[in-house]
Amino acid sequence: QVQVVESGGGSVQAGGSLRLSCRVSGYSSRRLYMAWFRQAPGKGREGVAHIDSDGSTAYRDSVKGRFTISKDAAENTLYLQMNRLKPEDTGVYYCAAERVGRALIRFVEAAYAYWGQGAQVSVSS
Question: 69 in helix, strand or coil?
Fold first, then answer.
């Protein structure tokens, strides 16, 4: 059974940086598609960054050039490095995963079967 657990959220001023981690257990991250989603207060969940099993990545336009998604296969951990944070980046950030071989459309919430509990990120102006 795939389990994912986020850590690393917190509060920061605009322009600052945070790094989120997502520890995978029960399965190899090498055989997972993985992504970060976020949900701002009063809004729906949206895809932020995605990484395929071959390391190829995709980003939401609003975070391109500021956020970097990466995966450490040896540590079985997914990361999201967030730089030059803005107040509009505030929200609960979720790690999501799906096994390679399953049909998946990037950033479509229903395509990811495994979800973490979320980590709060708050950016003040």
Answer: strand
